[in-house]
UniProtKB/TrEMBL annotation:
Name recorded for this polypeptide: DUF1722 domain-containing protein
Domain DUF1722, first and last residues per copy: 190-306
Protein source organism: Geobacter hydrogenophilus
Superkingdom classification of source: Bacteria
InterPro entries linked: 2-thiour_desulf (IPR007553), DUF1722 (IPR013560), UCP037004 (IPR017087)
């Protein structure tokens, strides 16, 4: 059964004219590329809480941990109006089965990182927008990012990978989950998790091994927390190289001396940052098919997201 991959997004990034000046911040990568795979749930906190378009610009002031939302010129405090909306909206979003959220950077409502907070006239980039903070607090395991940071290839790849993993986990929970199926889920994600954190992978393995000793609800909750925690750590060249060498070990009886030399050479080129990850992976996937490695064929590490997204192509 196909289930849509729903991703929340700041409405202005979809081209909706909801900004304070009546404009938008249409992001073509989000709509034209990600839009082929994701179903977007747009949110504009300002319009959602009843503010007009256009409207007076606002900013965050005071304590970065508990900032106030204040209009720039008339000095009207909009904090409680925004917080009431946030509380209502996160409850509504819980029913959407979101797998990620893309926020508008620098926004006093939707900025995720380093939003300006003014204190006695001096701004410090130390805050988060009120709505973004509410979403993160209510959905602590949800993959979240700002649209500006998606220009960084490593951040973009990690974020999108986490979204697809989140959808697979939600699908798992919806399809009669039990300990046996969790063992299978864990096994298929083994190499993917190892590319992010070997220590968390070992912790997850121990958790699954002792799964019979706890209630299913507790097991699933603890597994999900570790799964998303591991994926939030970026896969590095060093960690990917270790996984590639681990995969190569499955072919020790299959590869000819020339094939081994070629594969080792390509992995070394990746390790030395001369070629992107997609190069050794393509060769490995060729060998998976050639030598009928059914275990590796089931590993999400080899194809964690659609090839059309052109990820894993950066050096």
């Amino acid at each position: 059964m196909y289930r849509p991959i729903k991703v929340g997004v700041s409405s202005c990034l979809l081209g909706e004219k909801v900004r304070y000046d009546g404009g938008h911040k249409h992001d073509r990568y989000i709509t034209d590329v990600l839009g082929k795979f994701f179903t977007f749930v747009p949110v504009c906190p300002e319009v959602g809480c009843g503010m007009p378009v256009p409207r007076e610009a606002m900013r965050l002031e005071g304590d970065p941990e508990h900032p106030r939302l204040v209009t720039n010129k008339t000095r009207i405090d909009k904090t409680e109006q925004m917080r009431a909306f946030c509380q209502q909206k996160v409850t509504e979003l819980a029913d959407e089965e979101l797998c990620g959220f893309i926020f508008k950077k620098d926004s006093p409502s939707s900025g995720l990182f380093r939003v300006k907070v003014y204190n006695e006239g001096m701004p410090a980039r130390s805050g988060s927008g009120l709505f973004a903070a509410a979403v993160v607090k209510h959905f602590p395991l949800l993959p979240v990012e700002e649209e500006g940071r998606l220009n960084d290839a490593a951040i973009r790849e990690n974020f999108i990978e986490r979204i697809f993993c989140c959808r697979r986990w939600k699908d798992f929970l919806l399809d009669s989950p039990d300990l046996g199926r969790l063992v299978t889920f864990h096994a298929r994600h083994k190499l993917l998790i190892l590319a992010h954190s070997t220590s968390i992978y070992r912790e997850m393995g121990s958790l699954v091994a002792h799964g019979k000793e706890m209630r299913w609800s507790e097991l699933a909750q603890r597994y999900e927390a570790l799964f998303m925690k591991a994926l939030a750590l970026h896969a590095t060249v060093k960690k990917n190289t270790n996984v590639l060498m681990h995969i190569m070990g499955y072919f020790k009886r299959d590869l000819s001396p020339a094939e081994k030399e070629e594969l080792l050479g390509v992995i070394k080129e990746y390790h030395d940052r001369l070629v992107p990850l997609i190069v050794p992976l393509t060769l490995l996937k060729h060998y998976v098919g050639k030598y009928g490695q059914s275990y590796l064929h089931q590993q999400y590490y080899l194809s964690p997201h659609p090839a059309e997204l052109m990820l894993r192509n950066h050096v």
